[in-house]
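To close the chapter, one final illustration. This time we ask the reader to focus less on the individual chains and more on the assembly as a whole: which components sit near each other, and how the overall shape emerges from the parts.
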Amino acid sequence: MNNIVLRTIVNLISRLLLYLSIYLLWRGHNAPGGGFIGGIIAAIGFVFYAIIYGPGKTRERIKLPPMYYIGGGLFFSALSTVISVFTGRQPLTGLWIDIPLPVIEDIHLGTPFLFDMGVYLVVFGMITAIIINIMEVLRWN
Amino acid sequence: MHQLLPYLLTSLLVVGLATPLLEKKLKYRTGVFLSVIPLSFFLYFLWVFTSLGKTESLIIPPIMELVRGGGLSVRLDGLSVLFGLMVSGIGVLVLFYASAYMRKYPRQGYFFMLLTFFMGAMLGMVLTNNLIALFIFWELTSVFSFLLIGFDNHLEKARKAALQGFLITAFGGLCLLFGVLLIGDIAGTYEISELLNKGELITSHTRYPLIFLFLVLAVFTKSAQFPFHFWLPGAMNAPTPVSAYLHSATMVNAGVFLLLRVNPFIGDTLLWDSVLPLFGSITMFTGALLAFGEKDLKRILAFTTISALGIMVLLAGIDTTKSIKAALVFFVVHGLYKGALFMIAGLIDKTTGTRDIDRLGQLWKPLGLVSFAALLSFFSMAGLPPMLGFIGKELIYGAKMQAAYFSNIILVFGILSNMLMVGISFYVFYQVFWPYRRVKKKVAIDGHYARSFLLSFGPVILAAFSLGLGLAPVRIGKYLQNAIYFIRAEEVAVDLGLWHGVNAVLILSIITVGGGILLFIFRKQVAFNVARFNNWLNKFYLPDVFDKVIKNYVKVASRQTDRIQHGYHRYYLITFFVITSLLVVVHLFANSGIAPELQLQPIKSYLLILFIVMAFAAGYAIFSSSRIAAILALGIVGYGIGLVYLFFGAVDLAITQFLVETLVMVIFVLVIYKLPVFAVFSSKASRVRDIFIALLAGGMMGMVVLKSNFFNVETPISDYFINNSLNLAHGKNIVNVILVDFRALDTMGEITVLALAAAGVVALLRLNIKKRENE
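The assembled structure is written out below.
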């Protein structure tokens, strides 16, 4: 769809949705949001992008093959699963650390966040993988 | 130092993974380089072996437990160290040998990776103090054996043999698991050191016969006992270094190792003392007999290996101190000569291009030192002085005389099969090496291989050990005491020697050698008749029978699969909905009556409006004749549900519902945009059927929802989540905390399913694209 207005808007929106999704992922533990929702939102941004720019350009834009995101996501989740084993606890036990920061409030970081990041990546990768491939089958654009 | 052992064993996996990279740098030197690992293990075992007291064992607790009671704890005693010495020692030589032998093969890095993995698994198996760990390593050796037999994966024969060996040994592995679990159930522990004094408890238990059956199946499949022996000759399709290592000196002895390991707490019963000697002697005899009918050098050696394994099982079954001693010595004897002979067979194969003993001949001079090693090894196999094999055979005769049940029959069979062994040793040596045998056509000799240092190093060293240990047997005798102490729980002085004066055993030996020479003289007739017998036997050719069984099994399975997996989406949905609904309805009806207990509350007006809109949208979707309109209508239903979530304060759910609905819409529209309009509408009959199914499913769901208010049998877990979300899991968003913390395992499963689904979808779509590109 070669329309300069659409192109510009979609470019902007997909970016915005990506940032929004990262924000939702970050705050997910304490407020509505989280990896699943974040992953879908980020993917929707790229789905719009793909509808306007076509699957080839979208592949370029997400840099890595979608399957890599899925694999990476599974890896992060698995990693957060086993980290606690090395400290002698049951697998999947949440471990938390506080990172004190001046001015803004402290960052409270834990393995569940790593896990959520994995969920985010898997969901994102899955949706983009399916959409891009469907579009290639349909010869979109 | 000892504490590091579990880490060292695990590190072999890392080294194994790195070998393909090493191979890129080192090329054919990889094997020589890798041999540092088994060599250091060998030296370490040697040190432990000499420093271990007569009744001492070292137990190293596991780093971590895989399952409750199952972790890699290490046990160093005479038995494990003896096996460890053989595994690592022959490992060094095999790696040397393989680096020359595999030089022209593709995928050498992969080969050495498998060999390293196997070494790790085998060492882990003999060293562990835990039955669960033992089972895991046992299965790992089967897996690596499978991959190594099928290494020449372009040959159908190799693939078939690999699969056959794997199916049989893996079946045995499963039996071992059952046996181990039963033992653990009765004794309450999987640690061998704790099981040692619980023998009484296990052998007197009513489930003992079952345990025994499982363990015996494991042993018989792994150690190629009759009637499971037939996978071992097939395994000769592996590259020769693999045959020399896995299928003669180490892996196939795992069964014998298991017998010796569990002997203190499983053995010494009527079953043990009768079943094992029986099958052991059958295997011993048939192996030796069938070896005579073969022409392929490696297959001959394979059958003699079967025979030797039979002897070891027999000895473990006789279960006296003397027989255990004989089994241990014979294990060493056999590993030494058989490893050497296999390596020589491979060398001959490389040098002349054939392994047929009729075509080979007069190799004594061209092979030089190797022929001498072959002579010594054949002497050891025949059990002639002054080799270690002679001492082994003397011990075996002594032990057989003591057998608790039918010792006379065992002895006669033993003498017969030993005669056959002597005969076959002379026969093969005469055919292949004897310089004065007349041959029709001399085989061409590739001097490069004949003089290869790396190829001849292994057999020469092994033969030297056979000779050296035969001349100075006191060396190993001293160290066997520890092994025997833990197997038989008694302290005995082990003194091995070549000469014990003229006694019954010596006379038997002389008779055996005489019979062997007689067999050698009539070798043509014997070989001919055995070959004929073999042909007749091929009517019941076990590998074929096995193949047939597997094939029929697969056929039945695929027919079944065709019936269930028909490939029609609508029928899958019908099956799913009908079965689920019926199960739920029946369950509800059986438990609490089908009528819902109504406890109605006034409905909010905005919800009512929402529901009416949704109902209309659903109705529209049913009757619409345009796909896109139907899907948009369904979208309205979806968004409506999202709104309902929102009204009841489930923000996360609502967001997710909206997002998913949007996404589904987009995908649907993308796809449907390209589809033709409806061409054929479903018939009236199928519509009526669909109505009933829809009503059933919908009614079921409605009933469940209405009933669910009254199903709170126990306190709902949601209270726990609400109370602990912030304290324990540091999160205020309970939904998210449940997803990533309380129920993270479920989520883990779900994202794995997602990933698999994505992989499946992508694979299907790519297939489509590829097909198009090919056109």
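Chain A touches chain B through 52 residues (CB under 8 Å). The radius of gyration of chain A is 18 Å. With these observations in hand, you are ready for the problems at the end of the chapter.
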